[in-house]
Amino acid sequence: MTATATSAALADIGRSDATLRAFLHGLPGVDQVGAEQRAAMLATRSIKTTAKAWAIDLAIRMVDLTTLEGADTPGKVRALSAKARRPDPADPSCPAVAALCVYPSMVPVAAPELAGSGVHLASVATAFPSGQAPLDVKLADTKAAVAAGADEIDMVINRGAFLAGRYQEVYDEIVAVKDACGGAHLKVILETGELATYDNVRRASWLAMLAGGDFVKTSTGKVPVAATLPVTLVMLEAVRDFRAASGRQVGVKPAGGIRTTKDAIKYLVVVNETAGEDWLHPDWFRFGASTLLNDLLMQRTKLKTGRYSGPDYFTVD
Amino acid sequence: MFEYAPAPESRSIVDIKPSYGLFVNGEWVDSEVRDKTVNPANEEVLAEVAWATESEVDGAVRAARAAYENVWSKMPGRERAKYLFRIARIIQERGRELAVLESLDNGKPIRESRDVDVPLVAAHFFYYAGWADKLGYAGFGDDPRPLGVAGQVIPWNFPLLMLAWKIAPALACGNTVVLKPAETTPLTALVFAEICQEAELPPGVVNIVTGAGETGHALVSHPGVDKVAFTGSTEVGRAIARAVAGTRKKLTLELGGKAANIVFEDAPIDQAVEGIVNGIFFNQGHVCCAGSRLLVQESMYDEVLAALKRRMALLRVGDPLDKNTDIGAINSAAQLERIRTLSEIGSEEGASRWSPPCELPDRGFWFAPTIFTGVTQAHRIAREEIFGPVLSVLTFRTPAEAVEKANNTPYGLSAGVWTDKGSRILWMADRLRAGVVWANTFNKFDPTSPFGGYKESGYGREGGRHGLEAYLDV
User: Fold this and answer.
1) Could you list the residue ranges that cross the membrane (chain A) (predicted)?
2) Beta-carbon contacts below 8 Å between A and B
């Protein structure tokens, strides 16, 4: 089906609940055991020496350095902005991260800090993390973040509507938010931990892509189950198939729970052997993480110097 | 480009002796060295091994008989279990060593010997250890008796795993064994002999005689053998059946296969493609139950084939000891020749051949993963077992046609069904004449699950409760 669909036909799918349902439920199923087995096998890949150094630098460049706490203050956000620009002050060869990700109220603080640095400024929006607010509030949230300088918006989908089968509602909301984003990139958070099945993850990924999302993202990090390797695998299959069908490339962002270099490299292997090398770029793959960055820096230094330095040699922000 | 740097497993953990004798009555017996076993990945000689003569086989059978009469058949099941548990634990402890050695001698990737072969070997011993004192509850009477001395001949594709499939149930039931490993892959069986010593298994309970066809013939036709178990080619299986005919010997045979892997249009495509790849390229296709015939529903043919080719382009062929290798070396020059010959016949008969671009090492025995499309039931590559990384792709229109084509083979070892529809899985499984039917998976093994064939794939079952029957006087 996917190979024969044209992009015009794809655009038509969103016109009604019935067409969306027919399309999403017509996608090939995901066998849970098989998908998890494939992810587990890829996790056994052994990435050493030069390949590891390459992967660590790429992973640093893919980090969306994130702080999404009620306790966030301008001071904290400024500190993290500095970290995003220069993750390892002791080593100028260390690349900057992809983006800083904050709440909308913190965008005005972060924008001047990051101006001209090449580091993107992402803001969660649309009543993050639950998404349980009226549409006009969500759109206002989005517009405010963009107006204050965010060039990437991480929205949450309406899981309640999705699980109730009201696909059109979810679709229309994504379309409206995308419109409100203007020139900003839209990442669509599926909250896969709440979608529960891989079939749902695949359907929600397609729904988000059909509605115009630029990225599909696993999680808010605010529910118990965040990003997993098999969920990311299923989403990477979806973006791969979507590009084959529509010609448009969509990015993937696992977020939450990825804390170690070892984990991050496993994700990069899955990207490499699922969607392919076209996705091995910060424009197309991101890690939503906070503690991951310091572990990447520590492993980077270890590879360069041959020894481990303690955590005190890396900044805590 | 994400180029994975070489990640070789260290071979320093294995200590291969320059030459090996025979393991008889708990001791190493010198024998005339007559063969070399080589690493198929680079043709390096690993060790010299003996080919046991008829009189040496006779000695081994006598040792097994004495151990059976005097020790093993008299020992309570719970005591036999202790030895089997001990062997299982030592296998786990020496797991890395066994995995490296298996990959060196056989050519299979370390990922498979480490993650599949060796864990299954240990699991088999653990599982049958558990049966040893519960045989009265297995459904074969209150106190089923062992058969006596088992003569066992195993193939080169899963050297240590096939050894475990043979030895674990035999010992659990109270039999003693003389086992002949394949001439190209004797080394892990010889290390297993060391493990028997380490476990202080009573002498003569396990005897290992290396050698080729003549040794195997001497073993299966020895009048002192009560039970013959063979895994290997249908041709040799026939010869063994003839040799055993008219004797009191019990016989189980696990022979070739030409399994159909059937993909319906409603299958989970990404996982089905993984299953196709795993079905035929696992262990370089040196698997008797390999899914060597892919039957795709015609309505999904283009999608499945495109996805399969995309996936095959990712297969990493090369050094078996590299942890990232997916496909290792073909086990021997003779096997490589057979795969080449049958592949050429496939092309000559009009099927189209495709392999992903892949560089093969200069030395050693290598064959790129290959698929043939446009194959019909009349092609030899759709009927004969190739025993290599070569897949024949056929199509079907309806479930009934899928069953008909799948069963239209002299073999009947395994089959795979890929569909999201549970009722169809059951409908297919009822009709497929195959010992194992996998649903939405392939090449899955477990010691609790019986394995064996219909028709020319042999008879008898190995594994599970059913596997006990082959080693009990019932």
Assistant:
1) none
2) 73
The CATH number of B19-255+454-469 is: 3.40.605.10
**What's the pLDDT at A5?**
52
Q: What is the pTM of this model?
A: 0.96
Phi, psi of B34, rounded to the nearest 5 degrees? -130, 0
What burial class does residue A222 get, using C-beta atoms within 10 Å of its C-beta: 0-12 exposed, 13-18 middle, 19+ buried?
middle
Respond yes or no: is residue A253 known to be catalytic.
yes
**Which residue has tokens 């090996």?**
B20
Q: Which of A88, A141, A151, A154 is catalytic?
A: A154
Report DSSP state, residue A29: P
Beta strands in B292-406 (DSSP E): 293-297, 352-354, 370-373, 390-396
CATH class held by domain B260-439: alpha beta
Q: Shortest CB distance from B268 goes to which of A28, A52, A273?
A: A28
Contacts of A48 in chain B (CB under 8 A): 5-7
A46·B4 Cβ contact <8 A = yes
Tens of pLDDT along A165-221? 999 999 999 999 999 999 999 999 999 999 999 999 999 999 999 999 999 999 999
**Strands, sheet with B206-208, edge to edge from the N-terminal-most edge strand:** B27-29, B22-24, B206-208, B176-180, B149-153, B227-231, B250-254, B458-459
Record: contact B5-A273, CB cut-off 8 A: no
Judged by a CB distance cut-off of 8 A, whether residue B420 touches chain A is yes
Task: Report which DSSP code applies to A310.
Answer: -
Domains of chain A: 7-306 (3.20.20.70)
Torsion of CA A233, B289, B327, B354, to 10 degrees: -90
Place of tokens 């190995």: B462
The verdict on a CB contact (< 8 Å) between B440 and A33 is yes
Cα radius of gyration rounded to whole Å, chain A: 19
pLDDT (tens, 9 = 90+) of chain B, 474 residues, equals: 899 999 999 999 999 999 999 999 999 999 987 899 999 999 999 999 999 999 999 999 999 999 999 999 999 999 999 999 999 999 999 999 999 999 999 999 999 999 999 999 999 999 999 999 999 999 999 999 999 999 999 999 999 999 999 999 999 999 999 999 999 999 999 999 999 999 999 999 999 999 999 999 999 999 999 999 999 999 999 999 999 999 999 999 999 999 999 999 999 999 999 999 999 999 999 999 999 999 999 999 999 999 999 999 999 999 999 999 999 999 999 999 999 999 999 999 999 999 999 999 999 999 999 999 999 999 999 999 999 999 999 999 999 999 999 999 999 999 999 999 999 999 999 999 999 999 999 999 999 999 999 999 999 999 999 999 999 999
- Give the SS3 label for residue A64: strand
How deeply is B324 buried, as exposed, middle or buried, from its count of CB atoms within 10 A (0-12, 13-18, 19+)? Answer: buried
Catalytic: A138? no
Cis peptide before A129 (omega within 30 of 0): yes
Q: What is the pLDDT of residues B350-394, one digit of tens each?
A: 999 999 999 999 999 999 999 999 999 999 999 999 999 999 999
B289 contacts B443 by C-beta, under 8 angstroms: yes
Chain A contacts to B (CB-CB under 8 A)? 1-3, 28-31, 33-35, 37-38, 44-52, 54-55, 237, 268-269, 272-273, 277, 280
| CA–CA separation, B416 and B264 (whole Å) | 11
Do residues B329 and B284 make contact, with C-beta atoms less than 8 angstroms apart? yes
Angle between helix B187-198 and helix B77-93 axes, rounded to 10 deg: 120
- What ipTM was predicted for this assembly? 0.95
